[in-house]
Specification:
34% helix, globular, alpha/beta, ATP binding, nine-stranded mixed β-sheet, six-stranded mixed β-sheet, UDP-N-acetylmuramoyl-L-alanine:D-glutamate ligase, Udp-n-acetylmuramoylalanyl-d-glutamate--2,6- Diaminopimelate Ligase, Chain: A, domain 1, peptidoglycan synthesis, UDP-N-acetylmuramoyl-tripeptide-D-alanyl-D-alanine ligase activity, nucleotide-binding, 3 domains, cell shape
Length: 469
C-alpha cells in the first residue's frame, strides 16, 4: 500500500481523528487475526461478527489504528454515517481506494466482469501479465464494494499492472466500481443468468455488465467474448479499441485444433493476426481455454509477443480455491472441487468438463442449489439434471433441503442414478459407500451452500476408507 498518515486518511474519508495525525499507515486489514504491524484495521459490522469487538485484538497484534463507525478505545478514525445500507467503513474504504488509485501513475488497470469465469480469468490475466511487468492480481473473488477497494489498497507502489474483478448484484454497481478503479482495459467474459432474480432479465444483466465497457476511456481497450452475442453487442458502446476473443472464426484472438489431453487438460493453437503458436493450459475444462484466450488478448493489448503469451499459458497455476480444483485420491479416484459458486452457465460448463474427463470408473456430480435465479429457478435447476442425463453422467446427487428444486426424489437405494439427499451427513454416507476405483466426482453449488465443506468431508472419509486394512 502507498504510505499515508492517519491524518491524511481522516481527511480523505471525512472522518473524526482520534490519535496521532502523523502515524504512518502502511497496510489495510479487515481481519484481526491477520493484522501486521502498521496496518489500519477496518472494523466492519458483519452478519456474524462486529469488527469493533475485535479492535483491541487488532491493536495488540500491531495495528497502528482502526477505521470505525463506532467509537472505540485507542487511535482511530470515526467515519461518517452511511448514505445507504452499506457499512460506513466500506464507504470510507472506497474513498480511500479512489485516492490511492489517483496516486498510481503509468499503470494499466484491467477490469474483468461476466456472469461466470471472472475469478479464473483474473487469475490467468495476472499470471500472463507478470511476464511483462510487476502485476497485482490477488487470489480469491474480491469483486464487490469491499473486495475491489481492498485489491487497490493492497497493491504495491511500484506496480505496472493491476488486475481487478468486478461483480454485480444490481444496476450501477459496476459503474461505481469503475469510478474507483478507473480501468483502462475492460474484459467481459459472458452474460448469463447469475443474479437474474435481482435485475429481472438476461437483457438487464447484459446492460449491467456493459457498464464496464461504457466506463473505458477513448484510449482504452475493450476485450469482448466473440462467442457470446450479448457481449459482442457491447462493441458499439465504447470509443475504446476493441479486441475480440473466442472459438469463433471472426474472433481477433482465437483457438484452433483444440484437443483434450489424457489427464483432461487442453492443448490448442493460439492464433492472432495470421500468426499461430501451439500452447496448452494445465487445467480442466474447455471453458478454461476461453478464459485463457481472454488472458492472451490482454497480453497482446499491452504489447506482449504471441510466443511469450503462449509460453506463459503453459505455466498457469490454480490461484483461487474451489475452482476446478483437482484432488487425486487412492484407488485412482478424482475429486473436482468447483464448489465456490454456481449459476446455470457455469454449471453447464462444469458438467461438460466432467463428461470429458477420461475416467475408468463412474462419473458423479454432486450439486446444491443455485441461488438468485428468481422465478426461473425451478426450470433452470431441472435443466441441469436434463443436461447431466444427456451427458450420461453416471450418478447425480442433489444435496440440501433447498436442493429439492432439482426435481429428484429422495431415495436410499444405492443403485439409484439420481437422488436427492437433505443434508451433508446423509450425502457423505451415500457417496462414500458408493464410490469405487476410477470414479470421478464433481462438486458444485452456490457459495451459500458451502459445498467445499462437503467435498472435504467426503475426501477425508474416502482416504480413511482406503487406508484401512
Amino acid at each position: 500500500m502507498y504510505d499515508l498518515t492517519l491524518g491524511q486518511i481522516a481527511d480523505i474519508v471525512g472522518g473524526e481523528l482520534v490519535g496521532n495525525a502523523g502515524s504512518v499507515i502502511s497496510g489495510i486489514s479487515t481481519d484481526s487475526r491477520t493484522v501486521s504491524g502498521g496496518d489500519l484495521f477496518c472494523a466492519i459490522v458483519g452478519s456474524r461478527i462486529d469488527g469493533h469487538e475485535c479492535t483491541e485484538d487488532a491493536m495488540a497484534s500491531g495495528a497502528a489504528a482502526a477505521l470505525v463507525s463506532k467509537k472505540v478505545a485507542g487511535p482511530h478514525v470515526l467515519v461518517p454515517k452511511s448514505p445507504d445500507d452499506l457499512d460506513p467503513v466500506i464507504h470510507a474504504l472506497a474513498k480511500l481506494a479512489k485516492h490511492v488509485r489517483n496516486l498510481m501513475l503509468n499503470i494499466e488497470v484491467v477490469g474483468i466482469t461476466g456472469s461466470s469465469g471472472k475469478t479464473s480469468t483474473k487469475d490467468m490475466i495476472g499470471q500472463v501479465l507478470s511476464h511483462a511487468g510487476k502485476t497485482h492480481a490477488p487470489a480469491g473473488s474480491l469483486n464487490n464494494e469491499l473486495g475491489l477497494p481492498l485489491t487497490i489498497l493492497s497493491a504495491p507502489a511500484d506496480l505496472r499492472y493491476l488486475v481487478t474483478e468486478m461483480g454485480m448484484r444490481g444496476m450501477h454497481q459496476i459503474t461505481h466500481l469503475c469510478s474507483i478503479a478507473q480501468p483502462s482495459i475492460g474484459v467481459v467474459t459472458n452474460v448469463g443468468h447469475a443474479h437474474i432474480g435481482e435485475v429481472g432479465s438476461v437483457e438487464n444483466i447484459a446492460k449491467a455488465k456493459s457498464e464496464l465497457i461504457r466506463a473505458l476511456p477513448a484510449d482504452g481497450v475493450a476485450i469482448l467474448n466473440a462467442d457470446d452475442h450479448r457481449v459482442s453487442a457491447m462493441r458499439g458502446m465504447t470509443q475504446a479499441t476493441v479486441f475480440s476473443y473466442g472459438f469463433s472464426a471472426e474472433a481477433d484472438v482465437r483457438a484452433e485444433q483444440v484437443a483434450i489431453n489424457s489427464n483432461g487438460t487442453y492443448s490448442f493453437e493460439l492464433i492472432y493476426g495470421g500468426n499461430r503458436v501451439a500452447t496448452s493450459i494445465p487445467m480442466l475444462g474447455e471453458h478454461n481455454v476461453a478464459n485463457a484466450l481472454a488472458a492472451a488478448t490482454v497480453g497482446l493489448a499491452v504489447g506482449m509477443e504471441l510466443e511469450d503469451i503462449a509460453a506463459a499459458l503453459t505455466e498457469l497455476k490454480q490461484m483461487s480455491k474451489w475452482r476446478m480444483e483437482v484432488i487425486q485420491l487412492p484407488k485412482d479416484v478424482t475429486i473436482v472441487n468447483d464448489a465456490y459458486n454456481a449459476n446455470p452457465e457455469s454449471m453447464s460448463a462444469a458438467l461438460e468438463t466432467l463428461a470429458s474427463i477420461p475416467a475408468e470408473g463412474k462419473t458423479w456430480v454432486v450439486v446444491g442449489k443455485m441461488h438468485e435465479l428468481g422465478e426461473s429457478s425451478k426450470q433452470l435447476h431441472e435443466q441441469v439434471i436434463s443436461h447431466a442425463n444427456q451427458l450420461e453422467i453416471s450418478n447425480i446427487v442433489a444435496v440440501g433441503e433447498s436442493a429439492d428444486c432439482y426435481g429428484l426424489l429422495d431415495s436410499s437405494d444405492s443403485a439409484a442414478k439420481s437422488v436427492w439427499l437433505p443434508d451433508f451427513a446423509s450425502a457423505t454416507d451415500y457417496i462414500v459407500n458408493g464410490v469405487n476405483s476410477g470414479d470421478v466426482l464433481l462438486f458444485k453449488a452456490s457459495r451459500a451452500e458451502q459445498f467445499e465443506l462437503l467435498a472435504k468431508e467426503i475426501e477425508d472419509r474416502l482416504r480413511k476408507k482406503w487406508s484401512q486394512p
